[in-house]
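Sorry to interrupt, but I need a hand with the structure work. Leave the record below and I will have a look:
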Amino acid sequence: MLGMIRVITLEDEPAVRLHGALVEQRFGLPVLSRCIPDQPRGVYNEETEAESVPKIIELARQLEAEGCTAIGISCAADPALLEARAAVKVPVFGAGSCAAHLALTCSSRIGVLTILTEVPPFIRSILGDAYIGMDRPDGVTTTLDLGTPAGRAGALAGAARLVERGADALVLACTGFATIGLAAELEEKLGIRAFDPILSLGAAAASAASLPDIVRR
């Protein structure tokens, strides 16, 4: 079972389970989803990322204790990824890292669409010379903004600008893009591969699940 750590505090149970449900539907993996506490706007800058780290580590330990055989961090900045790996004995997958690795399988000209002022460090380091630049939707500062019509329009416009700069694949560096199902729309409208961070995490977890004694015991 995959333990999905949501780095935003949500009260609505279907919303809590949404990212896990995407993985379950696409890959057939059972998912147990939990939110970190006291972060209603999620992780969107250095301060909120720092606040999230001990919460993610603690939740990873709890999920492992409850029987999860892998952990997924549902944030493209991959907060506490290394710390969580050191804290538990099961594999820990970061959504951003997974998307970046998958993008490299099909492209050497990759753009990053993010809500941050800079590309998350793990993503940037993984992409290396394939990185052609980043864009940020106008008016979007937190994952919640992506759920508005203006936020979605801004994301589409930002992706189009990256294509104009020469990108032939995109890493969607916010799991809020998964919440609004942006990847499929970008592929249809722009004719470009767009890597959804949650589905990328699911693909990595599903691949590991086929190996003995790694995800399924």
